[in-house]
Specification:
This protein has about 190 residues and is an alpha+beta fold. The chain contains 5 helices and 8 strands; from the N terminus they run ββααβββαβαββα. α3 packs antiparallel against α5. The longest helix has 17 residues.
């Protein structure tokens, strides 16, 4: 199995294999900011969290993680997805964290942990990140990582609300990883407002 299940731990966040035991924390987390009501992203409603955990656990090309605070509380989900073991490629996606955990060190460190594992342990030849073209907050965050825009997949996905999603596709390559890693490490070390 590639990649093997793993727990990734930092100072501000732990990414642990997703389990149904995280459900009640995640139901609470999704209520913070009513994230499931955002039309341009897919976050489960509180009553759908259990089914979303089950779905993620049963997809063969997905390795889901619970995003945990240092005290062990689940505040979101993230995944390695579209896993391609033959070509050593993964996408980091289906990520959401409760409103109170956004714009702090937690998500920055989570990306650093995922990217470090992908490049240094899994020897990936590319890591992708994708988001709705109109999800400007997510696109800015991906661009702050140092990922490069590969292009836009037009009418890529039919959304639940009937709209068609244009998907912005970004990637980071091994040659870019040292600069991306230095940037993320600096972002974590600098004082926050």
């Amino acid at each position: 199995m590639w990649p093997a299940p793993v727990t990734l731990t930092g100072k501000h966040v732990t990414l642990a294999p997703l389990r149904q035991a995280h459900r009640s924390d995640l139901e609470e987390a999704v209520r913070d900011g009513e994230l499931h009501r955002l039309w341009y992203t897919t976050v489960p409603a509180p009553e759908a969290v259990e089914a979303e955990i089950e779905r993620r656990l049963n997809l063969p090309d997905m390795q889901p993680f619970a995003v945990l605070t240092p005290d062990g509380k689940a505040v979101g989900m993230t995944t390695y997805m579209n896993i391609d073991a033959t070509h050593r490629r993964v996408e980091i996606g289906s990520t959401w964290v409760r409103r109170a955990a956004q714009r702090g060190p937690l998500n920055t460190e989570a990306k650093l942990l995922l990217l470090t594992h992908a490049f240094d342990a899994l020897d990936c030849i590319a890591v992708e990140l994708r988001t709705h073209f109109l999800n400007h907050q997510s696109r800015r965050a991906i661009e702050r990582l140092g990922a490069k825009l590969d292009g836009v997949l037009r009418n890529h996905i039919a959304m639940e609300n009937g709209t068609l999603r244009d998907t912005a596709v970004y990637s980071i390559l091994p040659a870019e990883w040292p600069a991306v890693k230095a940037n993320l490490t600096w972002q974590l070390a600098k004082p926050r407002d």
